[in-house]
Design brief:
binds adenosine-5'-triphosphate; 2 domains; Isopropylmalate Dehydrogenase; 17% strand; two-stranded antiparallel ribbon; globular
């Protein structure tokens, strides 16, 4: 019997539609080849262009599609030229994270042989770690409702025991899964600023409490400033790191930089019921409509979606295809021939995506 999955698709703004199309094509091709799972993609309108047209950034109908779907695939939303009256950008993706309680932001950082990186990786140490960014509270708690007076502005950092416990359990579970598959050493690092802020001492105390339930995993701590330094100096020491929303926002862009740019960085925002899969980059309006956007971060996000759905629904073909898709992207990046301009190549979005599909089929 074929397992059918409904996927809410937010094409979004800027390069969004350009990188979404080939991703859906490749996911469909994988499903057709596998024969035991399939997708129904349901388009959901939202974003800055939609707001400019209708006055609504995230229509209730789109939120309904997102809520009932098996998974959500989102490209990028927001345009610097379209803003709310208070000057902030349109970012429905943050509203979706909060509405669906997607507390665990998963940001993998992998640097493969042949991949462009500003690091000098002498000795060829593999870099493969996962940053977990709490995605519903932290310093984003007062997003859109911070207080601004004449000479003073205030935003609030919020850390709750309930969300932190779930977040840390997610991080420890992931470390166990990575250890079992030979990917990581079995270590979770809590990244905070517990030496300065009471809220982070609280965060750390909850982390230490949860760690007790995972005696096979090493639990340690690092301050966020030192972590930024070590991500550049010795990124191979990390396995799973877990942190607050704003720290995670900043460190995940640093991680993307280590991987050769935002065009290589996938992500997932996962809750107890729902999950959104989207590239770390924005809508890149400077290159939109030119057909030169790098589709790899979006394709790798699609691979994360396959893995999550396959694990959740006990479908080994999907888990296998997630790995195959990730490896196919890796091979195209390592070859360096069919890569887009941001990776030093000359391929168009379509050519780069076609190379991934060829690599997938060649591996069968
Ligand atoms: P946001 O705040 O919405 O995350 P941003 O301000 O960080 O967005 P991006 O839209 O991510 O900005 O773009 C930053 C730079 O990276 C731009 O020069 C853009 O062209 C480039 N870029 C982002 N994504 C891609 C991609 N998929 N392919 C090629 N270049 C990209």
């Amino acid at each position: 019997m074929v397992s059918q999955f409904e996927i809410a698709v937010f094409e979004g703004d800027g390069i969004g539609p350009e990188i979404t199309r080939p991703t859906l094509d490749i996911l469909n091709a994988l499903a057709t080849d596998a024969g035991d799972y399939g997708f129904t993609f349901v388009s959901a309108a939202a974003g800055a262009a939609h707001y400019a047209k209708t006055g609504e950034a995230l229509p209730a109908a789109s939120m309904k599609i997102a809520r009932r779907s098996d998974a959500i695939l989102l490209s990028a939303m927001g345009l610097p030229s379209v803003r709310y009256a208070d000057g902030t950008e349109i970012s429905p993706q943050i509203e979706i994270r909060k509405a669906l309680d997607l507390y665990a932001g998963v940001r993998p950082v992998r640097i493969l042989p042949g991949q462009r990186t500003p690091l000098k990786l002498e000795g060829g140490q593999p870099v493969d770690f996962v940053l977990i960014r709490e995605s519903t509270e932290g310093l984003f708690h007062t997003q859109g409702c911070g207080e601004v007076e004449q000479d003073e502005a205030r935003e609030t950092l919020r850390i709750t025991r309930h969300t932190s416990e779930k977040l840390f359990r997610f991080a420890f579970d992931l470390a166990q899964k990575r250890k079992a598959s030979g990917l990581g050493a079995g270590r979770v690092t809590c990244v905070d600023k517990a030496n300065v802020f009471r809220a982070f001492a609280f965060f750390r105390e909850i982390f230490d409490g949860e760690a007790k339930a995972f005696p096979d995993i090493v639990a340690d701590h690092a301050y966020v400033d030192a972590t930024a330094l070590w991500m550049v100096e010795k990124p191979w020491v990390f396995d799973v790191m877990v942190t607050e929303n704003m720290f995670g926002d900043i460190l995940s862009d640093l991680g993307a930089g280590l991987m050769g740019g935002l065009g290589m960085a996938p992500s997932a925002d996962i809750g107890d019921e729902n999950a959104v899969f989207q590239p770390c980059h924005g809508s890149a309006p400077d290159i939109a409509t030119q057909g030169i956007a790098n589709p790899f971060a979006m394709l790798l996000s699609g691979a994360m979606m396959l893995d999550w759905l396959g694990t959740k629904h006990n479908n080994p073909a999907m888990v296998r295809d997630a790995k195959s898709l990730e490896r196919a992207v890796d091979r195209v990046v390592a070859d360096g021939v069919k890569t887009t301009r941001d990776l030093g190549g000359t391929a168009t979005t379509q050519e780069a995506a076609a190379a991934v599909l060829n690599a997938l089929r060649a591996s069968r």
